[in-house]
Amino acid sequence: MKPSTIILLGLAAMTTSVEAHGRMLTPPHRGYMYTLPQFSFFPSNYDDDGLSAGGIGSTKKGLHGICGDRYSAATPRPHETGGKYGLFPKYGAKAIGGCYAPGAIMDIKYQITANHKGYFEFGLCKLNGKNDAETEACFQTLSQPDGQKQWFLPA
């Protein structure tokens, strides 16, 4: 075996994947809502800061669940409408974490529990009824007041 092959194999063995660690506090994401008194009917989610579509090894050609779950999970996936934490069909308005008027400025708060760098993009999907489900096409990308669509984490 050539020395260059050994070095290449050694470098390949040292590569790692990065998975996100953070949670959306305002508006609260579905997996975090159980921590708030008004949402005590939500099931506990002790990994609410680890939504990563199942990790880089689980995504298929870049695909991921609409609400951050593993793409290959049975639908509705846990964080989607009708899933374990997507309780809108059962509880209606009592299971909504935030409501905003069209064109309003949203104050979004996120807690980073382990900074792996990267960036955030935010989008909203309006569901008109309890039987509606999120789709990629439904989401409208949000912009920051300066027009940027990505918010980069500080190093």
TrEMBL record:
Q: Which Pfam families match?
A: LPMO_10 (PF03067)
Q: Which domain of life is it from?
A: Eukaryota
Q: Where is the Chitin-binding type-4 domain?
A: 21-128
Sorted keywords for this record are: Signal
Q: Which residues form the signal peptide?
A: 1-20
Q: What is this protein called?
A: Chitin-binding type-4 domain-containing protein
